[in-house]
Amino acid sequence: KPALTQLGNQMTRLTGVRAIMKDIAETLRSGAGQDFINLSAGNPLILPEVEQLWRDCTADLLASAEYGDVVCRYGASQGYQPLIDAIVQDFNRRYGLQLTERNVLITPGSQSLYFYATNAFGGYTESGTLKKVVLPLSPDYTGYGGVALAPDSLFAYKPSLDIDTAAHRFKYRPNFSQLTIAEDTGCVLFSRPCNPTGNVLTDDEVQKIAALAAPHHVPVLIDSAYAPPFPALNFTEMTPLFGENILHCMSLSKAGLPGERIGIAIGNEQLIQVLECFQTNMCIHSPRYGQAIAARAINSGALADIAAQVIRPFYQKKVAIVETTLDQAMPSVPWFLHRGEGAIFTWLWLKDLPITDWEFYQELKQVGVIVVPGSSFFPGLHEDWEHTRQCVRISLTGSDQELEIAMQRLAAVVERVYQQS
Ligand code: PLP
């Protein structure tokens, strides 16, 4: 084993979702003669129309004179100019903005964007004070857990719960009586729609958060990996919000291009420049092949059309299957499904669950169903809260029949587990 630095150790530690992914990979490999229904993936399914779109854009690129310039040359750190231009035009037209090319940065996936931002704005200042990375509503994307080089900078807030007992549904809301954004805040970060819960913060809630941050000039990163206009994985009305201190962060991963690693940040020129400097140091620039095909799909309007007409309805139907099956099959225990407002997951809260989420995950494996235990989705939450051990994330990346069977088996396990206590 190589000798590692403090940072080396921190980055290689097997924590949170990495530990679970390893366990899942080993479970699937060992097989134990069982066919698992694997609802753990964050990987979107390959939809034929979406694959065809990227195939067509690639064919167009290959046939164009541009090809050599795209793959045989280095380019600007900020991104490939035709993609930047496509984003500027599309967003100005769609949302009535006045963006210029200086308001856009292309990164190799949006994960890298969160790495740049949480370390450029969060962490220790020159004078040694700690600037927090505030996650205003926990649970949130597990990937935020590993990006801050000063891990104690991550600071998540417990939410309020809106519970509809009769309907077995609930929704997380930011707890504005607790949420503090102040001098010691470096940046604010949240996903909308949210991975893992499928929550969509309302326009009002987002505006309130941005207004709390504005007087302190704190950047607010809105992780829009599932938002409109692409992949448009929102099942409730939502408006992307822009503003002086808002960094609107997008990803093409859920629009069928996770392998090409394309993240997009839109915001104030000065913020964009800071992130661009980080990027130059880290990797010079994003690969340009993906950027060139993305420019085509955005310019033609095909990406936004396919998102709204194919990607969104596909996953919306899956949410309905999970909801209907659980409503029919669940025993009479205090279970609550998060309102399915977006993303490619459902989030189940089993109140008073007699075992931990990790043990529940093991029980489900015994009946051939794999989900992700919920406790890995509370990065930056420093207080102990039993709720964190009472949830699971169910990925909607199964066939209709698999989802139905898996939810029936889950309901049977829930019944047994509560009865035994
Ligand atoms: N943000 C959220 C909420 C995600 O769910 C994901 C991936 O699952 C990412 C960011 C990272 O996406 P990428 O780096 O592929 O753009």
From TrEMBL:
It is an enzyme of class 2 (transferase). Its cofactor is pyridoxal 5'-phosphate. The keyword Transferase applies. It comes from Stenomitos frigidus AS-A4. It comes from the Bacteria. SUPFAM superfamilies: PLP-dependent transferases. Residues 35-410 form the Aminotransferase class I/classII large domain. The keyword Signal does not apply. Keywords: Aminotransferase, Pyridoxal phosphate, Transferase. Transmembrane segments: none annotated. This is Valine--pyruvate transaminase. Its EC number is 2.6.1.66. Gene3D superfamilies: Type I PLP-dependent aspartate aminotransferase-like (Major domain). GO terms for molecular function: valine-pyruvate transaminase activity.
